[in-house]
Design brief:
By secondary structure, the protein is mainly alpha-helical. Helices cover 52% and strands 0% of the residues. It is built from 17 helices and no strands. It is globular and about 65 Å long.
Length: 397
């Protein structure tokens, strides 16, 4: 697992945030473990991206905030200075782009739990906007330390001023004329900014295959495309040697939809039959729809090829995949035939919070509200977020 996801200090925070967003914000929950497939395929095709990303210009807003604070001198707390600047940025963007990708726009003037500097820090490293130091990307805490010490008196033993540590960003495009002050800002990239970001994307390569370009790099270099899913035929062609892998990612996306539909149907069944609670059929009625749309595609998953694409998977997740594929092949009858495998996987992930657990599941199922559990859908591999970033780039071309 160490070779996937975010690197350095912000890695865990970003992973937690992505799990939270996928668990509540987008209605996708990961009781069984399908998010592992999502993360690994998404990291491969779209390095540096996150479901927390909204607009591409944040990749410049964040370092510009740090540069401005560096030049002005940090407040009593660098962290507080960054937070104040991010709140101000949200207010300025709200003037032109309310509810259109403004991070913290709804909570303004209060701070947001996932500010831009957290959401985009890993991207700044992956996209080459942060300079590596000793083979690693500097953390936010390290950069905050530079801000804290920037204007402190630093004298050596001979009474001479000591050199100041510079911020670890590459040479950035100039800040726009509207940057100072409190007037409106927007997400429209200036040509020089688009040129800079295009150069960042043009050589992005998957960590697992550093000899070939990522799909994100190929997309950034080409003409604008419109696609609802990242594994549509035109994108498979664009991916060239990664085309078969992208097609297999589509199969895995459908398998996840089936698995999530099975899980929800199992919870409804147990809640009604074992817990004797009045329970609707929202998810049980949705399962045949998911099977009609995705069952045949999901059945194309080859476990060997899947693990070759993603790397090793936890044994309980492998068991779920194997059992689900066998169930589909046998005609996909009762979802309860898969309970043992699904219960084991959920218990491994959630222990006493597992709804399918024979030991602890009853109270978790009783408090379960079917309408708050989104209907099962395929994995998306951050395609909606990536598309938005690319459209910002293409619009400035």
């Amino acid at each position: 697992m160490s070779s996937y996801g975010w690197t350095y200090l912000s890695r865990d925070a970003l992973r937690r945030a992505e799990r939270q967003l996928l668990g509540t914000g987008d209605g996708v929950r990961d009781e069984i473990g399908f998010l592992i497939l999502h993360q690994r395929y998404a990291d491969y095709f779209f390095p540096g991206t996150s479901v927390l990303h909204t607009r591409l210009r944040y990749a410049l807003f964040v370092p510009w905030i740090y540069l401005t604070l560096y030049e002005e001198g940090a407040a009593a707390s660098a962290r507080d200075g960054v937070q104040k600047s991010e709140i101000s940025l949200a207010g300025r963007l709200n003037q032109t782009s309310r509810d259109d990708g403004v991070i913290g726009g709804r909570s303004y003037p209060d701070p947001t739990s996932q500010p831009p500097s957290v959401s985009y820090w890993g991207a700044l490293g992956t996209w080459g906007i942060l300079r590596e130091q000793d083979g690693r990307w500097p953390s936010r805490a390290y950069v905050h330390g530079i801000l804290q010490s920037k204007h402190r008196r630093a004298i050596d033993d001979d009474g001479q001023a000591m050199a100041r540590t510079e911020l670890p960003f590459v040479a950035l495009p100039p800040r726009p004329p509207a940057w100072p002050g409190s007037g409106p800002l927007d997400f429209k990239l200036l040509p020089r900014e688009a040129t800079f970001l295009h150069a960042r994307f043009s050589d992005l390569r998957p960590a697992r295959s550093p000899k070939q370009l990522s799909l994100l790099a190929r997309l950034a270099a080409g003409a604008p495309v419109e696609a609802d899913r990242c594994w549509e035929p035109g994108l498979i062609d664009l991916a060239e040697e990664d085309g078969p892998k992208l097609r297999r990612a589509g199969y895995a996306a459908s398998l996840a939809a089936v698995g999530r539909a099975v899980y929800a149907a199992q919870v409804e069944t147990l809640r009604e039959e074992e817990d004797h609670q009045p329970t609707g059929r929202r998810h049980r009625d949705h399962l045949p729809i998911v099977l009609a749309r995705h069952g045949a595609i999901a059945g194309r998953v080859n476990l060997g090829a899947l693990t070759e694409d993603t790397g090793s998977l936890p044994p309980e997740v492998v068991e779920v995949i194997e059992q689900t594929l066998a169930w589909l092949k046998a005609g996909a009858k009762s979802p309860m035939a898969l309970r043992d495998a699904y219960e084991n996987a959920e218990c491994k992930r959630k222990t006493q919070r597992a709804r399918l657990s024979r030991l602890f599941g009853t109270p978790r199922r009783i408090e379960w509200i079917a309408d708050e559990h989104a209907l099962a859908e395929p994995l998306h591999y951050r395609w909606h977020q990536v598309s938005r970033l690319l459209h910002d780039l293409w619009a400035a071309a």
